[in-house]
Design goal:
single chain, alpha/beta, 2 domains, two-stranded antiparallel ribbon, elongated
Length: 348
């Protein structure tokens, strides 16, 4: 596979504030090793056809002239150009969804059209420079081809996608028109519904993500994730991903700790869960001590009050019940006196 290239092109840093889910997904997926792994697993059934070194960042924003004569812009989540030996093989697009978008088909068509339109303009510009320009009405010289554009829609919802996945479905195209209406479809991947044997085909950190979402959907994250022995590569991005999708602040709090641990050796899911467990025990112990001190203090105050009541009763030659009544003891405090006295006598 060659030297690992896990760099993200043209990236200078990661924001520290909580990100929107699609931004967080992109932080991890735009790494070349993760992106290539997703394509290889979902498109090529695990075969390593796309290599990290083939990938270069493509434009996520494409401008195009619409039928109304106005220029519009389409913004993808991630776009990578697959360039092999200087030749464009394909353009890969990736869109992330946390909710069902019932217009995803239209969005997908727009993204793909914008990529094809950009591709055509680049070829036309190259043709002009090389003197191979076609007539305006022809567009491109005969035999010159555009690059294939493939867009994957990764859906991270916990319920199955119930929106349209094809243009025919979205537009309710009648049978007599289907031969005239191309049936554009989205390449939908429901991450939380992937089977374990499919998840095992991932070779990057995305395997951890896919297993996490499957476990979350099945309601047994702790059991499944504790047994996940895969070493984490992009620790910071994984922690931000988990933080955003669970709302658990511990993922943000422990991010620096795990990044530090990764510099000492391998970090796995059990490293994180052990830290959580240790934190829970420490909090439980602290809470127990605080509760014990609080109870001890309450007990000390109560005993002091009972001793005052006894001295008051002796001084005024009245019963302890009368003394406590005059001193405005509550019924609970009065009943507690008998229990305290009995315990005190037993100790004596």
């Amino acid at each position: 596979m060659g030297k690992r290239n896990t760099s993200r092109n043209n990236k200078t840093g990661i924001k520290t504030k909580k990100s929107r889910p699609d931004q967080v997904e992109k932080l991890l997926e735009e790494w070349n090793d993760v992106f290539a792994d997703i394509i290889n697993t979902l498109v090529y059934n695990g075969e390593r056809n796309v290599k990290e070194e083939y990938l270069a960042d493509g434009p996520t924003a494409s401008r195009f002239k619409a039928a109304d004569g106005q220029y519009h812009e389409k913004n993808r989540d991630i776009c990578k150009e697959d360039i092999r030996n200087g030749v464009h093989y394909a353009v890969w697009g990736m869109e992330n969804q946390t909710d069902v978008d019932r217009l995803m088909v239209v969005r997908g068509m727009g993204y793909d059209y914008a990529s094809y339109d950009r591709n055509a303009k680049l070829l036309q510009a190259e043709n002009r420079l090389s003197g191979n320009e076609a007539k305006y009405t022809e567009g491109l010289p005969k035999g010159q081809l555009l690059w294939p554009v493939v867009t994957l829609v990764l859906y991270f919802g916990m319920t199955e996608w119930d929106g349209p996945t094809t243009l025919w479905e979205l537009a309710g195209v009648p049978d007599e028109l289907k031969r005239y209406v191309p049936n554009y479809h989205i390449n939908l991947v429901q991450v939380a519904f992937l089977e374990e044997n499919d998840i095992q085909k991932f070779s990057s950190d995305f395997q951890i993500i896919a297993r996490f979402f499957r476990a979350k959907r099945l309601g047994n994250e702790q059991e499944i994730m504790y047994n996940d022995q895969r070493a984490w590569i992009h620790v910071s991005e994984l922690m931000e991903f988990f933080y955003t999708f669970t709302g658990d602040k511990r993922y943000r709090q422990y991010k620096a700790f795990l990044v530090g641990e990764s510099k000492k050796g391998e970090v796995k899911m059990c490293t994180l869960l052990d830290a959580f467990e240790k934190e829970g025990l420490e909090k439980g112990l602290k809470k127990g001590l605080e509760k014990g001190l609080e109870k001890g203090l309450e007990k000390g105050i109560a005993i002091g009050q009972y001793q005052i009541a006894e001295r008051y009763a002796r001084k005024h030659s009245i019963s302890i019940e009368a003394a406590m009544a005059q001193l405005s003891f509550s019924k609970k405090e009065m009943s507690g006196y008998a229990a305290w006295k009995a315990a005190d006598n037993n100790m004596a």
